[in-house]
């Protein structure tokens, strides 16, 4: 018989945010995980948060996360990537594989070797982002509010959507367009999980064509699938306890 009050395994989480976000994206979720007894870190990476320099590379971003892990002497970590953060997790895993207990991708990109995140976007999104990038004058992409409202925060009220939109900033475009050498990643044997929030509308719900799951998740080989309700960015703020529970189920032994 399975005991109804199962033991909570203390874990060390390192949480990596996605595009148009910073480390504060994790505040509510991190608080919930700590309340559950876990050790939680949410490092910032270049081009985000207080870093005003948008002329950054993907290598700078993944190296920053790896350096944080090393500097804080973290071991046996559950490395979580959300959205674009999945690509950062892929490269970070190459840099510090011996420190990672499990990789968790939450509605995140899992790129094939030699791909960029932009390669995985539907053609309409590629065209829209390319236009915004060229018009920016500083090689950044700012999400138009209609796209943010309908695809990123589709479960939000209009008031919530406006509140969240006021807190995003232009994303450095360079790393989104970099084609990544993931030869080493695909040789790693670190256990991995995929968390799929089923109302997430950032990638079209078209099965294998562009979807988070099963298209991205299937690239992980053997993996644990955890599903729950939620959209791309609202649920992290309105139901952090729900997301924390899903991440724990993804990360535990």
Compose a concise summary of this entry.
The protein has 253 residues and is α/β, with parallel strands linked by helices. The protein is 36% helix and 14% strand.
Structure overview:
The chain has helices at residues 27-35, 58-71, 85-95, 123-136, 145-152, 158-165, 174-177, 212-216, 234-238, 240-251; strands spanning 12-16, 39-41, 77-82, 100-106, 140-141, 171-172, 192-197, 224-228. The chain has 253 residues and is an alpha/beta fold. The chain has one domain: Alpha/Beta hydrolase fold, catalytic domain (Rossmann fold, 3-Layer(aba) Sandwich), CATH 3.40.50.1820. A 6-stranded parallel β-sheet has the order 2-1-3-4-7-8, sandwiched between helices. The chain has a two-stranded antiparallel sheet with strand order 5-6. Helix 8 (212-216) links the parallel strand 7 (192-197) and strand 8. Helix 1 (27-35) crosses helix 10 and helix 2 crosses helix 3. The two termini are 19 Å apart.
């Amino acid at each position: 018989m399975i005991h109804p009050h199962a033991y909570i395994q203390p874990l060390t989480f390192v949480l990596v945010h996605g595009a148009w976000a910073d480390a504060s994206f994790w505040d509510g979720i991190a608080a919930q995980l700590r309340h559950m007894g876990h050790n939680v870190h949410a490092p910032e990476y270049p081009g985000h948060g207080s870093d005003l320099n948008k002329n950054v590379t993907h290598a700078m971003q993944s190296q920053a996360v790896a350096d944080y892990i090393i500097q804080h002497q973290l071991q046996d970590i559950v490395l979580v990537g959300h959205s674009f953060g999945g690509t950062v997790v892929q490269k970070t895993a190459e840099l510090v594989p011996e420190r990672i207990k499990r990789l968790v991708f939450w509605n995140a990109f899992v790129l094939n070797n030699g791909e960029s995140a932009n390669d995985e976007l539907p053609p309409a999104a590629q065209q829209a982002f390319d236009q915004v990038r060229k018009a920016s004058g500083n090689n950044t992409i700012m999400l138009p509010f209609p796209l943010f409202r309908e695809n990123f925060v589709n479960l939000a009220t209009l008031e919530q959507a406006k509140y969240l939109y006021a807190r995003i900033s232009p994303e450095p475009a360079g790393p989104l367009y970099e084609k990544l050498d993931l030869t080493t990643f695909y040789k790693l044997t670190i256990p991995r999980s995929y968390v799929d929030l089923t109302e997430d509308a950032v990638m079209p719900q078209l099965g294998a064509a562009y979807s988070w799951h099963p298209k991205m998740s299937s690239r992980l080989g053997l993996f644990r699938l955890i599903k729950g309700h939620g959209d791309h960015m609202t649920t992290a703020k309105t139901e952090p306890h729900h997301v924390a529970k899903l991440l724990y189920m993804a990360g535990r032994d």
